[in-house]
Structures are given as C-alpha cells and as structure tokens.
Write a structure and sequence with these properties.
Elements lengths: L8 E5 L4 E6 L8 E3 L22 H19 L6 E5 L1 H7 L5 H6 E6 L7 H10 L3
Parallel strand pairs: 1-4, 4-5
Antiparallel strand pairs: 1-2, 2-3
C-alpha cells in the first residue's frame, strides 16, 4: 500500500520527457492530477560536468534542466514532498544535481520509466508500492 501524503508531487521522467503529477487523494488512496508540463528547452544547454555518449548529450541536458527546475520549485516552496520516478540512467544523472532542499523533500525514488503509461496505470502501480 502506498503512503504518499496528499499534495505530494510525483515527477515521472526519462531523458526526453517529464510529467508532473500531484496527489489530490488521501495518503492511503492515491489520486493523481496531472499538472502543466514545465518547458525545458535543451536548445542552448549542454550537460554539466558529465561526459555522456554523443547521442545522449540531449538527454543529459534535459536531465540537467529538470534538476534545475526541481531545485527552483523547492527553493520557492512549491512542493513539500516529492516522489521521483525515472529510468536508472536519468535517476543516476539527476541525483547529484539536486539541491539539498529537494533532497530533504524527497519522499521516495522509483526506478521505472513510466513517462508513456496512462495516468490510471501510474496510480495503480503507486498504490501497489510500499513507499
């Protein structure tokens, strides 16, 4: 059973896309609402401190922008708790770039790529998790 408090952000990402979800249900019965997707423009940004494969440069830049966005949101107190769901590579790249404020609000990490699955399926999967 999931114990994700009401208001918790669930950010589902991979190296190319992100979905920002919020628990509008209860702690024991998750109900997700999809918030507007942040605009993360990788056009003029390169990966920071990383040496990705040439074809992964765009993905590393996207993950960097996502980390920067999460850092700004935490510092502006836009969320109290965060569940971060991402594929292993993206999660490994984003962790060291997260500000201590994001890290302090991190409720759970889930190593999955759920960016392309329906919202109802994400709810079911999270409700089945032991977080």
């Amino acid at each position: 059973m999931s114990l994700i408090p009401q208001g918790t952000w669930v950010v589902v990402a991979n190296g190319r896309s992100v979905r920002v979800l919020r628990n509008v249900g209860t702690e024991t019965q998750l109900k997700l609402h999809q918030d507007p997707t942040p605009t993360l423009d990788t056009e003029n940004v390169g990966p920071s401190g990383l040496q990705p494969k040439e074809n992964d440069t765009g993905e590393a830049a996207f993950v960097k922008l996502l980390a920067d966005w999460l850092n700004r949101q935490a510092l502006a107190h836009h969320f109290e708790r965060l569940v971060l769901v991402a594929d292993a590579v993206s999660l490994g790249e984003i962790r060291p770039q997260l500000h201590k404020e994001v890290q302090a609000r991190l409720h759970a990490e889930i190593v999955k790529d759920w960016t392309n699955i329906p919202l109802d399926d994400i709810e079911k999967a999270l409700n089945a998790q032991r977080i």
